Amino acid sequence: MENFDELLKKYADFIVRVGVNPQPGQTLIINCPLEGAPLARLCVRSAYEAGARDVQVNWSDDAVARARMELGSEEALTDLKPWQLRRYLDYAESEGGVCVLHLIADDPELYVGIDGNKISRVNAARRAFMEEWQEYTMNDRVQWSIAALPSVPWAKKVFPELDADAAMEALWKLIFDVCRVTGGDPVNEWQAHMERLSTLRDKMNALDLESVHFESSNGTDLTVGLADQAVWESAASKSEKGVVFLPNIPTEEVFTAPHKDRVEGVVYGTKPYVFNGQLIKNFHVTFEKGRVVDYHAEQGQVLLGRLLDGDEGSRSIGEVALVPASSPINRSGKLFYSTLFDENAACHIAFGASYPGTTKGGTALTKEELLARGMNQSRLHEDVMIGAEDSHITGKCRDGRTVELFRDGVWVL
């Protein structure tokens, strides 16, 4: 790619300055795989130029992660030490505060062939251990953002017909395209995009909906009742200090909180889902009174069961998101095998926790107060894609009106 270095720098500047948006005096923590070092170095420089007080980089490696999960004892893998939590909390509690950028290069099948029960128990233990930090991110108390870069296993999964080098180049090009970097001015492109999504968000909030209904020819017939005082949100978030940031790069969604007890019907997954480094394909789930009572998957059914049995809240959903089939990710015609991208190619729901900010004043409420509004509680938050090319979505307003939201997979609002 002849202008790769130029595009990579634009990408780095964008994900730092618009994505995580470090403020003067803040510390930025970057979590990055080893193959992302060139991008991480550019992000470090961009963050300092934006006024960050310090930038810390935590390195990871998929080969090491797989070896530890495969060969390490469960006792050792769940023997988590206080510093692993405090490295985030100490900065979050400091005067300057912290923000976090996750650079990911996921291998969709990293843990294939490893005992799935072991993986689930280890990951559940890690989530429980990090719950205090998760409170910061779920409540947008700090800025956080996730952006991607290719790895060879991921690139070969997306482009199996190409050799490794060609697949890496093709995936880089695809990421630059759908993240609006290729055009040369990603900051202004994203400002315009965020304004469009904000307009849709405001229209959705003005409707004062009590539920949304999904239908498609694959058999989906799902009614999602909304949490009390539910608020629709869009691309940009705002920290408790009023700093605007972009949690997911890319993003195409307008989303809110379902009521944990008011989801009814059946829904079919429209894209494979990666959970614990393994694939779930062609699944459907049935809800009664907000909880999954039946499920099936052509591939990964046992894995889907583990997801749904993760904790008390994982059989209910904490998010419902509207994404048009006209999104750049869907128009690319590629399945990314990465939730970060695939959730922005299709409408989706998330098993597990609600974002407190999707109910009015929610970030200032206690867990008990959130629960009283129907906001789901869980250590999980796992997005699965349910939008189809022919999705028809309507909303029922609290005044009794029914409003058409999507026809043939795209907004009509």
TrEMBL record:
InterPro entries: M29_Exopeptidase, M29_N-terminal, Peptidase_M29. It comes from Faecalibacterium faecis. Its cofactor is Zn(2+); Co(2+); Mg(2+). It comes from the Bacteria. Belongs to the peptidase M29 family. Pfam families: Peptidase_M29. GO terms for molecular function: aminopeptidase activity. Keywords: Aminopeptidase, Hydrolase, Metal-binding, Metalloprotease, Protease. SUPFAM superfamilies: Thermophilic metalloprotease-like (SSF144052). This is Aminopeptidase.
